[in-house]
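C-alpha cells as discussed.
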C-alpha cells in the first residue's frame, strides 16, 4: 500500500492506528504481568534462600551448643534440684539465681550448673547465663547418676 492510499482513505489510517494502540496496550499489560510474576518468583527464591541460610546457622549453633553442654556434663557440672523439694530435679532458667540449699546463698560466679533436661549454664553475676543444651540423654543420665541416687526425677 502506498502512502497515497492512506491519504485518500483517512479512516483506514485511523483504524490501523487504533489496532496498533490496542496491540501495544494489551501487550503492555501482558509484559507488566510477566514482570510482576518474575519479580514475585525472584522474591520467593530470595526468601527461600534466606530461610535456608537461617536454618543452617541455627543448626550450626545447636551443634556448638551441644558440644559445650556435653563438655559441661562430662566435667562435673552441679546438678540443680528444686528449692522446695530437694529430692526432685528442676530446670535452669536464664537470668535466675541458683541457690545453695544448705547455706541459702547464690552459687558463686563461674560455677557450671546443669539440669536433668540437658540444659547447662554458667553462673555470672549471681545468675544463670551462657546457657547451652544437649539432647544426648546418655550424658545427662550419667551426670544424674553421679548424684549417687540421692535425687529422683519429678513425676510428669
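Sequence:
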Amino acid at each position: 500500500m502506498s502512502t497515497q492510499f492512506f491519504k485518500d482513505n483517512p479512516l483506514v489510517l485511523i483504524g490501523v492506528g487504533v489496532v496498533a494502540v490496542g496491540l501495544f496496550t494489551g501487550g503492555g499489560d501482558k509484559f507488566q504481568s510477566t514482570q510482576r510474576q518474575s519479580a514475585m518468583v525472584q522474591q520467593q527464591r530470595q526468601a527461600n534462600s534466606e530461610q535456608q541460610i537461617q536454618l543452617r546457622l541455627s543448626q550450626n549453633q545447636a551443634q556448638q551448643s551441644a558440644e559445650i553442654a556435653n563438655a559441661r556434663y562430662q566435667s562435673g557440672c552441679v546438678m540443680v534440684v528444686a528449692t522446695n523439694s530437694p529430692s526432685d530435679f528442676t530446670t535452669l532458667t536464664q537470668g535466675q539465681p541458683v541457690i545453695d540449699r544448705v547455706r541459702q546463698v547464690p552459687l558463686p560466679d563461674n560455677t557450671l550448673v546443669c539440669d536433668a533436661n540437658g540444659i547447662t549454664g554458667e553462673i555470672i553475676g549471681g545468675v544463670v547465663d551462657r546457657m547451652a543444651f544437649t539432647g544426648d540423654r546418655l550424658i545427662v543420665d550419667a551426670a544424674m547418676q553421679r548424684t549417687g541416687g540421692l535425687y529422683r526425677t519429678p513425676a510428669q
